[in-house]
Design a protein that fits this description.
By secondary structure, the chain is α+β, with helices and mostly antiparallel strands. It is 35% helix and 34% strand. The chain has one domain.
Length: 205
């Protein structure tokens, strides 16, 4: 009986603390969430291609497998963004002076396929996003994350002028889709209640 009583008290106390924590959270409004998403996009609004290091080699195997580099780098060379040289393994590509303008040396955190956070010091970026408007927000399904909200928003995009090239749009289909989705396609960001305000949750938290 004593053990059961202690368990019951613990459950009641836990529920009370959860209720108190939730009660202290101010339900967000459009203005607060717009500010949080804007802050998120300042740090994480660049649209980059996971081309962290240069030069980059394209081997015969890459050509056969039609990897991203095998398809994309020849197009970037035609557009004057990279230059190539034949090497023993295949072709080696360097950024030109024009291409260097899109190589952003800014620390970024990306999530791997297993959810592990990876930090990179630079990347080849072709566009940047800013907030258009917040559309809606919902709490996560997990009751342990009730201090968070998942925010859906539309965006504005500023893309590199060479992304208007038909071949560039073809070899960067995701970028093309995001460009075409300006003001319509919805993206999401997670925000959390911290220190009395709603702030963005950054990748790798």
């Amino acid at each position: 009986m004593t053990v059961k009583l202690r368990v019951s008290v613990g459950i009641i106390l836990g529920a009370a603390l959860t209720y108190a924590a939730q009660a202290s959270i101010a339900e967000p409004n459009q203005e607060q969430l717009s500010h949080a998403v804007t802050q998120f996009l300042v740090d994480h609004g660049d649209l980059c291609m996971a081309k962290y290091t240069w030069p980059r080699d394209v081997t015969a195997e890459d050509q056969q497998a039609q990897t991203n580099d095998a398809l994309q780098l020849p197009v970037l060379e035609r557009l004057g963004l990279v230059k190539s040289q034949d090497v023993e393994s295949g072709k080696r590509y360097w950024l030109t002076h024009k291409g260097q303008k899109y190589y952003s040396k800014k620390k970024r955190t990306t999530l791997g396929i297993h959810g592990d956070a990876q930090e990179h010091g630079a990347d080849f970026c072709v566009a940047s996003l800013t907030l258009d408007k917040v559309v809606k927000w919902t709490p996560p399904d997990d009751p342990k994350l009730q201090t968070e909200r998942i925010v859906s928003y539309t965006y504005r995009i500023k893309a590199a002028d060479w992304m208007s090239d038909s071949d560039a749009r073809k070899v960067f289909p995701i970028v093309d889709r995001i460009i075409q989705g300006q003001g319509k396609l919805q993206m999401t960001a997670t925000v959390e209640w911290r220190d009395g305000q709603w702030v963005p949750v950054m990748p790798g938290k």
